[in-house]
Amino acid sequence: MEQQPNLNYIKDLSGDDSAFEEKFIAVLKEEIPLEKEEYIRCITAENYKDTASIVHKLKHKLNILSLTEDYKLAVIYEEDLKKGDSSLNDKFLIILNKIDVYIKNL
Amino acid sequence: MNCIIVDDEGAARMIVEQLCSKIPELDVIDSFSNAMDAMKFLNQQAVDVVFLDIHMPGFTGIDFVQTLKNPPRIVLTTSDTNFAIEAYEYEAIVDYLVKPITQDRFEKSIVKIKTALEKSKAPAPVTTKAASNAEDDIYINIDRRLIKLKLNEILVVEAKGDYIEVKTTTKNYRVHNTLKSIKDKLPENMFLQIHRSYIINFTKIIDIEDNSVLIEKSVIPISRSNRPELMRRLNLL
């Protein structure tokens, strides 16, 4: 079954600090769409080195959102990209769309 | 105990700030989205600990550690486990936290930091280089004549095949010798190899732009591997 994103890690981290939680979600809402956009720009340009860098940033977001299986795919994909292999692009885009939709609905 | 946070991701900086907020004796003085701004800050103010991301564009966390003259205690924060072995080659690095960082793991890191600070209040050395030989002159052999050059007049030494060219403020000299040979004779407090073909007198630098330095009218390339050491030697504001 496909993993769905959640805020468990953020809630653990924030404890009773709801201000932190709100502020953190605002940062995710700001960063994830920009990083997704940057990812699409780099992969479209077949700039695999920069694509690997943006996947590196995004894989941290996957961990934050408790997407441990998607994180594993991102780890492999980042290494593949460094070797010029972008064959996991389609799968990674599905993950990106999933977190993008989730973040927008928070 | 005070600290700064260096990470190009806003979300990652916020997480470390939140983790720090749960440690009463730890004050976050500032956060930086890039290593260069953090370096400028550290040149003006001492801190006990730096929470440092490794993977940053342009200037990585490892470059940062190599560049600092007197690094404070450093805790690396990263999504990679690949750098762990390299990280512990530096005495200043006391811990290595893999993201996402939990409060429990962070608190263990604080214990390590406290232990390291107690062991020594002195800054940790990054490298151990031989002491400089502070002579004022060097003699070069040209056509069986030994010509004395004042060290502070030498600008650049360039490797050109099986000879080197020594460029001074007044004249250039072509000498049958190797770059390594002259490098060993030049004092480290004045000269630095910044490229496999160039040694510069870094007191003569006019400016540095991207991957080159300007000395008088010469633009000298800086290789990526030599850049951290050059940055370490500079008195950055």
TrEMBL record, chain A:
GO term, biological process aspect, one: phosphorelay signal transduction system
One GO MF term: kinase activity
InterPro entries attached to this UniProt entry: HPT_dom_sf (IPR036641)
Keywords, alphabetical: Kinase, Transferase
Highest taxon above the source species: Bacteria
Name assigned to this protein: Histidine kinase
UniProtKB/TrEMBL annotation, chain B:
Keyword Phosphoprotein in record: yes
SMART domains: LytTR, REC
GO molecular function: DNA binding; phosphorelay response regulator activity
Response regulatory domain sequence ranges: 2-114
Domain HTH LytTR-type span(s) in chain numbering: 138-236
Top-level taxonomic group: Bacteria
4-aspartylphosphate modifications at: D53
Keyword Phosphoprotein: yes
Keywords: Phosphoprotein
The protein's name in its UniProt record: Two component transcriptional regulator, LytTR family
Species this protein is from: Cellulophaga baltica
